[in-house]
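hey
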């Protein structure tokens, strides 16, 4: 007995020694892949101060993905022990929950009494600043009809089926935000009929602004008056579908901004297909052709165009498993030009309609695919330093797809994040970090099968263990 005990202790010691010396992590969860991308690991290596992540969750709810979330956050802690992860179960530990609510002024506190109650939150706290992520933002779902439990049931029932797990995208962006001293600043052009960041209606851009804020981009309105130019602290200029032509001096200011190395997100739509905004000649000089034509998909009876075809580029690499949905988009293509010089900007078409598309200006032409998004990047030139950096431009044929209603479709919201981070040269947030597919395992049982399974688990299996234990005892007794 003594020798056996010593051998067991020796083996256990060797296993612990090898585990410490040759550390490797194994992943068993088939539902969501929680491994971290190389880009996230690069960002985590730069975290030098403690950052606390609090999971304010109902830990017993099987539908809120708590287990997958805590598993992935534990990977962040394993990569850098400065990331501290803790859980507060607001249902089973109300005392600790009240302290968290008071500390972060969550809904339900005396300072915030009229807001709906807090439920399932991830709180990132650097000690000086904090960011709260709602749990519902972690998983993207789609509405799916449920199979009736009773064959005689006539009313249809629906459920939200989880499709994508977006934990790493959100967690890494919040860590980057908290470890960066100042947010990037974006300006949203106003004064020419553009939509409003404050508009919460179907076609407003309130959710667009919220998505930018979640990526640590501060956005505010800008009017280019006769005295005002594009501000010196403008990291990104956004022009979202002006309804009227821009003034000549405003266009000169925009062109000067781009020549100085500015970043521009320009969104067109069908409303100005027959009326030039003045931006078209500027973009053409940068190699982008905004065609006065609307793309229609012959396979789709509605006005929407589903985009599943993408090139290879940081803005769209994370969308290859998703899709974009646009409404009456204009064709945006790169200009046909002779062989470009070594110093010419790099122009790439990023997203395309299906092969069964046509232009409304030429419906009789053979169906083919049309480009809808174009990116421009001016690579650094030797001996030349622009005050704003190196020019980057992203042009889309639709603006409605990032409006309050349409931004929820497919990967539209993800596109906003990828586009902003690429334009701001934060490619560590777009390269290699994408949503993970969710695999569901559902066991459909009738009431009779449930009853039989319950007896098997609660009666037959424990009974069999007891019976064999009794047999072993009987044999040893003899």
């Amino acid at each position: 007995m003594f020798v056996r005990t010593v051998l067991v202790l020796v083996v256990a010691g060797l296993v612990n020694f090898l585990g410490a010396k040759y550390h490797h992590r194994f992943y068993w969860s088939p539902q969501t892949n929680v491994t971290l991308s190389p880009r996230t690991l690069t960002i985590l290596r730069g975290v030098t101060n403690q950052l606390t992540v609090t999971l304010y969750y109902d830990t017993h709810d099987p539908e809120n993905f708590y287990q997958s979330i805590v598993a992935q956050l534990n990977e962040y802690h394993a990569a850098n022990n400065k990331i501290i992860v803790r859980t507060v179960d607001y249902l089973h530990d109300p005392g600790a929950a009240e302290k968290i609510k008071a500390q972060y002024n969550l809904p339900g506190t005396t300072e915030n009494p009229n807001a709906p109650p807090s439920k399932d939150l991830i709180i990132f706290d650097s000690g000086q600043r904090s960011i709260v992520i709602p749990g519902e933002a972690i998983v993207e779902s789609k509405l799916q009809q449920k199979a009736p439990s009773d064959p005689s049931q006539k009313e249809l029932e629906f459920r939200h089926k989880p499709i994508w797990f977006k934990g790493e995208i959100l967690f890494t962006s919040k860590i980057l935000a908290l470890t960066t001293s100042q947010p990037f600043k974006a300006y949203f052009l106003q004064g020419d009929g553009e939509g409003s960041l404050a508009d919460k209606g179907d076609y407003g851009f309130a959710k667009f602004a919220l998505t930018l804020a979640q990526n640590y981009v501060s956005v505010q309105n800008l009017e280019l008056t006769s005295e005002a130019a594009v501000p010196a602290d403008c990291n990104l200029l956004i022009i979202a579908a002006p309804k009227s032509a821009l003034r000549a001096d405003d266009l000169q200011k925009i062109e000067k901004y781009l020549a100085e190395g500015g970043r521009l997100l320009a969104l067109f739509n069908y409303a100005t297909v027959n009326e030039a905004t003045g931006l078209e000649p500027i973009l053409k000089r940068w190699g982008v052709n905004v065609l006065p034509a609307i793309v229609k998909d012959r396979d789709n009876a509605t006005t929407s165009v589903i985009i599943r075809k993408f090139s290879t580029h940081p803005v769209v690499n994370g969308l290859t498993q998703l899709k974009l949905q646009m409404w009456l988009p204009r064709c945006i293509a790169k200009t046909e030009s002779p062989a470009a010089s070594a110093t010419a900007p790099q122009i790439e078409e990023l997203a395309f309609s299906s092969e069964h598309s046509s232009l409304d200006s030429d419906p009789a032409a053979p169906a083919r695919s049309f480009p809808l998004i174009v990116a421009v990047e001016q690579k650094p030139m030797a001996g030349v330093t622009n005050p704003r950096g190196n020019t980057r431009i992203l042009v889309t044929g639709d603006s409605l797809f990032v409006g309050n209603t349409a931004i929820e479709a497919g990967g539209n919201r993800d596109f906003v994040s990828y586009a902003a981070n690429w334009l701001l040269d934060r490619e560590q947030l777009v390269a290699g970090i994408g949503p993970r597919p969710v695999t569901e395992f559902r066991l459909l049982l009738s009431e009779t099968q449930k009853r039989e399974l319950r007896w098997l688990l609660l009666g037959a299996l424990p009974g069999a263990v007891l019976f064999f234990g009794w047999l072993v005892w009987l044999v040893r007794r003899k």
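The CA atoms of residues 16 and 22 lie 10 Å apart. The domain at 20-181+427-456 is CATH 3.40.30.10 (Glutaredoxin).
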